[in-house]
């Protein structure tokens, strides 16, 4: 049941995007269950300065749920996908749509083996949101979600009718996924490495570094079959001045919170594809090396602490 009819929606992950999507599903009138590792009392999402408590059950153990659910939103970080396997095994069935709201590309290849028989729907989330505490999310800006132009994508759009989510079905999802990766490829690493907010993206030397990163990425994306061009480099750079300079990125928020970084699915996605295609990407390789070193240092600090 979709649209104006009640449906059960399970959201795996209680971070910023999980909280945002849970709020959208609840606004559309659906029964929402948050599937998390660590319990919290309630979900509160702040939007336009106004906090709103979201009617959602919070569950920490998969066997407490009656499965399958018709809708499962996978919102964990891409590197935590395998950790969601017990939830997917419990919740996904032959009539389930698993909406993969993660960064990177190749969403279906990453998730389909963990949800055999279910339909896997990748979703590109153009939302700036921040998890400020367990069960507390601040929505900064954006409601755009891009999905493939096929039946599951249209069903998802109907599911969230009545919410703030603005869902677009793109017939060239491969190109859309790479363009979304471009938007993460510069801001996420640079803010995380420098511990600076988005305003750093307006500094001339940082802009030129971003241009070099994106120029390499466009060549890789084209080799992977994406319909992108050099104009996408400037189009991506032109986005950053439109953002709140005090805003952050998901990778910056992860570093500040001491969480593992998502570099393998952002910069790593470009480097891996470049290796397969025999394309030289020295700038992205250098950025990936720095991110790996940073991530390892953070992990060691947690272990030593």
Description of the molecule:
The chain is α/β, with parallel strands linked by helices. Helices cover 41% and strands 21% of the residues. It has 10 helices and 11 strands. The strands form 2 sheets. It has a 6-stranded parallel β-sheet with strand order 5-2-1-6-7-8, with helices on both faces. Strands 3, 4, 9, 10 and 11 form a 5-stranded mixed β-sheet that branches. α5 runs antiparallel to α6, α5 crosses α8 and α6 crosses α9. The relative contact order is 0.12. The model has no long low-confidence stretch (mean pLDDT 94).
Question: Could you tell me the radius of gyration in angstroms?
Answer: 19 Å
Report the sheet-strand fraction. 15-25%
Give the mean pLDDT.
94
Q: Based on CA inertia axes, which overall geometry fits?
A: globular
Low-confidence stretches: none
Helix/strand/pairing category = alpha/beta
Number of helices: 10
Characterize this entry briefly.
By secondary structure, the chain is of the alpha/beta class. 41% of the residues lie in helices and 21% in strands. Helix 5 runs antiparallel to helix 6, helix 6 crosses helix 7 and helix 9 crosses helix 10 (282-304).
Comma- or semicolon-separated keywords:
305 residues, alpha/beta, 6-stranded parallel β-sheet, 5-stranded mixed β-sheet, 10 helices, 11 strands
Set down the secondary structure blueprint:
Layout lengths: L7 E5 L3 H12 L3 E5 L7 E5 L2 E5 L1 E4 L11 E4 L10 H7 L5 E4 L6 H5 L7 E4 L1 E10 L2 E13 L2 H9 L6 E5 L2 H22 L9 H20 L7 H7 L12 H8 L9 H11 L4 H23 L1
Parallel strand pairs: 1-2, 1-6, 2-5, 3-10, 6-7, 7-8, 10-11
Antiparallel strand pairs: 3-4, 9-10
Helix pairs in contact: 5-6, 5-8, 6-7, 6-9, 9-10
């Amino acid at each position: 049941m979709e649209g104006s009819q009640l449906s059960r929606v399970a959201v795996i992950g209680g971070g910023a995007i999980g909280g945002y999507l849970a709020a959208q599903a609840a606004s559309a009138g659906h029964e929402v269950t948050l599937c998390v590792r660590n319990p919290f009392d309630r979900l509160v999402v702040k939007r336009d300065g106004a906090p709103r408590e979201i009617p959602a059950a919070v569950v920490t153990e998969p066997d407490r749920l009656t499965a399958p659910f018709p809708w499962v939103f996978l919102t964990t970080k891409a590197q935590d996908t395998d950790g969601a396997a017990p939830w997917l095994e419990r919740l996904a069935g032959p009539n389930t749509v698993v909406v993969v709201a993660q960064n990177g590309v190749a969403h279906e290849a990453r998730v389909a083996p963990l949800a055999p028989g279910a339909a896997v729907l990748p979703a590109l989330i153009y939302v700036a949101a921040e998890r400020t505490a367990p069960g507390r999310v601040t929505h900064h800006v954006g409601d755009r979600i891009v999905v493939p132009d096929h039946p599951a994508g249209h069903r998802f759009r109907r599911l969230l009718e009545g919410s703030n989510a603005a869902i677009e079905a793109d017939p060239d999802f491969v190109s859309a996924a790479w363009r979304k990766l471009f938007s993460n490829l510069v801001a996420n690493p640079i803010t995380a490495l420098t511990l600076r907010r988005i305003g750093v993206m307006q500094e001339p030397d940082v802009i030129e570094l971003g241009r070099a990163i994106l120029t390499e990425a466009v060549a890789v994306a084209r080799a992977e079959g994406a319909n992108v061009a050099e104009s996408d480099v400037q189009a991506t750079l032109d986005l950053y001045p439109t953002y709140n300079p005090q805003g952050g990125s998901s990778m910056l928020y992860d570093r500040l919170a001491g969480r593992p970084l998502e570099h393998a699915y952002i910069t790593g996605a470009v480097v891996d594809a470049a290796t397969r295609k025999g394309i030289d990407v020295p700038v992205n390789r250098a950025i990936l090396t720095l991110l790996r070193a940073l991530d390892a240092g953070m992990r060691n600090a947690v272990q030593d602490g």
